Amino acid sequence: MNNPKVKAFVGRNGSWLFASVGCIVLWILMGLFGSGGVSLISLIDNAYTASFLAIAGIAQMLVVTTGRGAIDLSIPGMITLGAYTSMGICNGSNAMIIPALLVVLLEGLVIGALNSAMVIWLKIPAIIATMAMNYIIVTGTMLIDHNFNVFTIPSFLETLTTYRIATVPIIVVLVILLAVLVNFLLTATTYGKSLLALGQNKEAARLAGVRVVKVEMVTYMAAAALAGLAGALISARVTGAYLGMGDNYQMESIACIVIGGTLMSGGRANTAGTLVGSLFLYLIISCMQLMGADAGMQSVVKGALIIVVLLIGASDNSKKREKKYRKSADSAA
Predict the structure, then answer these.
(1) Could you tell me if 70 and 64 are in contact, meaning their C-beta atoms sit under 8 angstroms apart?
(2) Total domain count for the chain?
(3) How many CB atoms lie within 10 A of CB 305?
(4) How would you label 14-47 residue by residue, b for 16+ Cβ within 10 Å and e otherwise?
(5) 225-274: per-residue pLDDT in tens?
(6) Beta carbons within 10 angstroms of residue 321's beta carbon
(7) Residue 3 is assigned to a structural domain of this protein
(8) Which residues have a Cβ under 8 Å from the Cβ of 291 and sit 6 or more positions away?
């Protein structure tokens, strides 16, 4: 561990590397205490369930990366709205899938633009602005709910979310490809580099020529659109839409990115870590279900896990700042 490059890599990716090891341990424990033994199928099944969370997690990761404690609390409402919109427009017709998804994405872009407008121009903290937006979305969805009693799922959309090739669900492959695309955008494009700079120091990024308003607005819009897409896919998986179907994703989308190594203070995103964090979270849930833990206990464990990871991250950041200040003091002396 004396190699500086190895230390730097572990420093950037330590959280999700440990989570990866945790996934293996939890998978083995599930096999030991479950009835099916240690099976690759059980791991794939958890990856399938986690893939829907991963989409919401990537959306949350983008907003959190903008910095200053930003969290998008409108993601649950957007998931539910996306589900209702897609199911309502499709009404069982494969021909209407593309128009339905386009409307869902458009809804996300509009809601994301409104979120960013409240944050950028009205100076409302992101957590408050998006929470208020979530209430508005939920109310709007309640009005939509009165017009739908029975949902018919388009066969193609159902196949997309349930079909497997050699035991591997198509949706898992698609989510991995989405993560690769987002990672490319964050690491190899002007937008991605600008977003990371914005998250680290907004004023410094502005002085460096970053169009901070545009970057922040695009980020909120992309996040809301992804959340809506997640809702459409989740509705196909559960064969319907219902009020509150996105509620569980509020806490879990935060948990998976924290576990995956995305800094809650902004400026650093980890797409691969978000995938691993999603899987880790669902493996924990599966283990607790095997032990007979109820939903309340599962929420307590998830909350405790977030706190522990945040404390570890805060400790690491504190050590880095202290080291930086010490170097500055030595240079001044």
Answers:
(1) yes
(2) 1
(3) 17
(4) bbbbbbbebbeebbebbbeeeeeeeeeebbeebb
(5) 999 999 999 999 988 888 899 998 998 899 899 888 898 888 999 999 99
(6) 10
(7) no
(8) 33
